[in-house]
Write a structure and sequence with these properties.
Blueprint lengths: L16 E7 L5 H14 L4 E6 L9 E3 L5 E3 L1 E3 L2 H7 L5 E4 L9 H10 L3 E7 L11 H7 L2 E5 L1 E2 L6 E2 L1 E4 L15 E4 L1 H11 L1
Parallel strand pairs: 1-7, 1-8, 2-5, 2-6, 6-7
Antiparallel strand pairs: 3-4, 9-10, 11-12
The structure holds zinc ion.
Length: 196
C-alpha cells in the first residue's frame, strides 16, 4: 500500500509532488484516489477533486468508484480550468486523468511546483493495450507511481489489460463498463487473436 512520504518534515522541502495511480479497468484506481484524498481531508487539509466533464457515467458532481464510495468533485472542460478553480487547496485529486488534453502535464507540474500534493488516477492503456493519452508523460514527471491490478475475469490471474467485448474502434467508449473485461496478458492476447 502507498504510504505518504514525509517530505514536509524538512521545512526546506515545501514543494509539492505528483502521484500517479494507474491500471486497467476494475483495478480500483478511483478507490485508491478516494482513500488518499479522504485521509488528507480527515487531517484537515484542504482538498479539491476534479474530473473531465465528459465522464458522466454516474452523478456529475461526484467521483464515484464502482463500490459507490462517493466523494464531491468538480467536472471541468479542460486542464486549464483546473488551475482556474483550484483555489487554496493543498491536495488536488484528478480522476479519469487519461481523458485530459496535453495541457494536463503542465497543470500538474505547475501545481506541484507551487507546493500542492497532486494525486491523479487514470487508465494507463486503452482497449488495444496501447498507452492512453498523456499518461506516459504524467508517469515520467511524477515522483510516485502506483500501478494497481484487477483480477482476470477469464482465468483469475493478475489482470493488466482492459479487454473490449464489443466491436467498436473508438478509443473512448464512455459509460460502458459492461463492454469491458479485465484480463491478464494471456487471456487478452487470446481474445485479440480470436477477433482476427
Ligand atoms: Zn487470464
Amino acid at each position: 500500500m502507498f504510504i505518504e512520504p514525509n517530505l514536509r518534515a524538512n521545512p526546506k522541502h515545501q514543494a509539492g509532488w505528483l502521484e500517479v495511480i494507474c491500471g486497467c479497468m476494475f483495478s480500483g484506481k478511483t478507490e485508491e484516489l478516494i482513500r488518499r484524498v479522504n485521509r488528507a481531508k480527515i487531517a484537515k487539509q484542504e482538498v479539491a477533486i476534479f474530473k473531465p466533464s465528459m465522464d458522466n457515467r454516474y452523478h456529475s458532481k461526484h467521483v464515484i468508484s464502482h463500490n459507490a464510495n462517493a466523494i464531491y468533485s468538480v467536472p471541468v472542460e479542460s486542464s486549464q480550468e483546473i488551475l482556474a478553480r483550484v483555489g487554496t487547496a493543498t491536495v488536488v485529486g484528478i480522476d479519469e486523468v487519461q481523458f485530459f488534453d496535453e495541457g494536463i502535464i503542465e497543470v500538474c507540474t505547475c501545481l506541484a511546483n507551487s507546493g500542492v500534493r497532486v494525486i491523479v488516477a487514470g487508465l494507463d492503456m486503452d482497449y488495444r493495450g496501447m498507452p492512453f493519452g498523456f499518461m506516459p508523460n504524467l508517469m515520467a514527471v511524477a515522483e510516485f507511481i502506483t500501478k494497481v491490478h484487477a483480477i482476470c475475469m477469464q482465468c483469475g490471474g493478475v489482470a493488466n489489460f482492459s479487454y473490449r467485448l464489443v466491436a467498436a474502434k473508438e478509443q473512448v467508449l464512455l459509460g460502458e463498463t459492461d463492454a469491458y473485461e479485465a484480463r491478464c496478458r494471456k487471456c487478452f492476447l487470446e481474445g485479440q487473436h480470436r477477433e482476427e
